[in-house]
Amino acid sequence: MSPDDGARRLVLVTGGARGIGKAVARAFAQAGDRVVIADVDGEAGEKAAAEIGAASVTMDVTEAASVDSALAQVGETIDVLVNNAGVVAGGGPLVELPLEVFDRVVAVNLRGTFTVTRAVAAGMIAAGRGGCVVNISSIGARQPTAGLGHYEATKAAVDALTRTAALELAPYGIRANGVAPGPVLTPMTAGLMSDPAARAAWESRIPLGRIAGTGDITPLVVFLASPAARHITGTVVQVDGGQLLT
To answer: Domain Ketoreductase spans what residues (predicted)?
Structure first.
């Protein structure tokens, strides 16, 4: 049975131990899907999985051997892949940004998305029952912010991978889409958002006037992986309170 036919699906969420990933994992579990959290922090992944009634595996998305090992532990074909693992790793002007920061962000955000998609999609093709990939991108792929060029470049690349995956995987009944949030209140942004001036500066860019919570992001992720979206592929949808309008 195809995942778009209402089967109880197996959903893999990378970077699912915290933030958007954990919220996405919870939303799929609440919808009745079986969920596996994959995270480089195995202990945090186990804790998050226990909270929401999911399973967990330790996975370093930057390393193909780690990805393959984690998928072997899962032992079943993934029906829905959510590529959420991502880092900022630092910031600064391009002329001052340390190469190790750039390399780290490229390794996790771009190489990681590619490496996991390659492995999971191959399994979907072999199983012959279709599937869904949802990549967590960022509106930064389309709207630059000084000091975040390294991060935003990787998200633009993720958008390109999403479109290519949609084209190449369509003959196998596999859809690929993306969700591009604006700023979201997560542990990754907690430091910035705790500064009233910095938060006000971000909010001033958003027509709806507030920073998103993870609950603003999860409904679209679940929808894009659902049968209701069965004719949607190759799109990246923003959830930004209108920030790209400014």
So the answer is: 9-182
Yes or no: say if 182 and 139 are a contact pair by the CB < 8 Å rule.
yes
Could you tell me which CATH number the domain at 3-181+217-237 has? 3.40.50.720
Choose among 173, 159, 141: nearest CA to 236.
159
Sheet (strand 80-83) strand order: 55-58, 34-39, 10-14, 80-83, 131-136, 174-181, 236-239
Q: Two tokens at 11? A: 């959903």
For residue range 161-190, what is the model confidence (pLDDT) as tens digits? 999 999 999 999 999 999 999 999 887 777
Q: Among all residues, which ones are annotated catalytic?
A: 151
d(CA 69, CA 103): 24
Span 143-154, pLDDT tens digits: 999 999 999 999
